[in-house]
Design goal:
Elements: E1 4-8, H1 13-24, E2 28-33, E3 43-49, E4 54-55, H2 57-61, E5 65-68, H3 81-105, E6 111-117, E7 126-130, H4 140-156, E8 162-167, E9 169-171, H5 176-186, E10 202-204, H6 205-217, E11 223-227, H7 235-245, H8 257-264, H9 269-272, E12 275-277, H10 280-283, H11 294-302
Parallel strand pairs: 1-2, 1-5, 2-3, 5-6, 6-8, 7-12, 8-11, 9-10
Antiparallel strand pairs: 3-4
Helix pairs in contact: 1-6, 3-4, 7-11
Length: about 300
Amino acid sequence: MKKNVLITGGTGFIGKYLTDELVQRGFSVSILTRNSKTNTNDISYYIWDVSTQNIEEAAVLNADYIIHLAGENIADKRWTAKRKLEIIESRTQSAQLIYSVLKKHNHKLEAFVSASGIGIYGAINGEGICTENTLPANDFIGTVCQEWEKSADLIASLGIRTVKIRTGLVLGKNGGILNKLTPIFKNSFGSALGSGKQYMPWIHIYDLCEMYIEAIKNEKMVGPYNATINDSTTNSTFSRALANNFGYSIWLPNVPTFLIRLGMGEMACIVLTGRRVSSDKVKSLGFRFRFKSLMSALKNCLN
């Protein structure tokens, strides 16, 4: 009998890729969604509404594993006080809802794997390399990730193996950061942002999905793991590589910091700051990244 993986946020960019990979590996997949969808042979859809704490409990009770990806896009809208609360609660209340069902029925998963972000180390520029033992930051992004991971700890308190995937910038087709940058760079208007020296730890969507699958299969994986390539890519490096992929060299000056802050407000820290992040912990378990070169990753995504 196939093992079942329940995915929250399964209709999003990462969730769609991950669903396809899991099905190809012989898993059945369940997806929690706010809107009714038609089931297929391999994918079952269940309704939930986090705002009202309603859920089709069968989704949780039929699951052998749960992968928790749900959460409002942190860069989708300007950070008003209301928006900040939505970003945090979309992550924490969804996990709390799952926790309540697991506890109510004493259902034991084989593993619970939660998304998190390298933003836990803060919107800070610096040369130091962050590991999973680096202290979290207390700025907004750091706080979001800390609360996100605390909600995953609720599941761990039930005696369920819990893994937290601290994700960097995800490169893939038809979504993520490239979806926003491609129209600009394809038309030869690309340039670096601010100083251009801020680091941009990235990961290819294929490798990220592989890490999630490793997390549900490998019983040695517990706690946080960084999901990035530590190749010291800066914003300038990334911008030049993206322009090169479209056959030109950047000719425009860097976009001034003050213009970015004017347009994005407090949220500008997402693109103006960045730290180096180590993935040695997951590699020590034998995990190997397929896409280690930025140019090869970009070519795979864009060509």
